[in-house]
Amino acid sequence: MQANESSGNGYQRNIEALDMTNYLCRICMGELRQEINNGNLDLSVYRYLSIIKGKTAALFEASFHGGAMLSTTDERKLRMYRKVGNDVGMIFQLMDDCIDYEMDEMDAKKNVRSDYEEGVVTLPLIHAMKQDEKFVKQVKNGLVSAKELYDRVLEAGGTAYTKAMAGRYYTKAVTTIENLNLSEAKMARIMTVVDKSYYGIKK
After folding, report:
1. Rounded to two decimals, what is the model's pTM?
2. Hey, is 69 helix, strand or coil?
């Protein structure tokens, strides 16, 4: 009984160390900053990445952190798991941004071609608008239809740029996972999550 109580106390300390308040605050602030920036066609790449770092990456980071605490108390490893979670969250959101421009609803299994109509400015559009000042003026003046906008984003390499950005986070995540020195089975399970975030459900 005494051993169980000791184990329970250790588990409680780990749960407290997760600091859910901090994660919830980061997630809520990310959502709020996205709402504030709805329709902001001057949104920078840096600011957009900082928004999704809170909105999506913090949720993944909390999940990886919480799961890791069930198997280790090593602070170094816990930090590494948090880093992987953050990188996977960034990958997931960036690739999800591309789905809105590249896939139909049947393949995506979700609504697509909806971000811009809802005022959500994502990285593919941000990149495309940086390539052509005339395009920026046309969009701001309402002279571009939704279909034209989506076509122009693809032509300007907006999704290609976004995928390249996601690829950098993928490389960082894989490097961190390799440095965790996990068993082959555990690495395979974690890599399944990383790969599906990057390659999609067909991977």
Report:
1. 0.85
2. helix
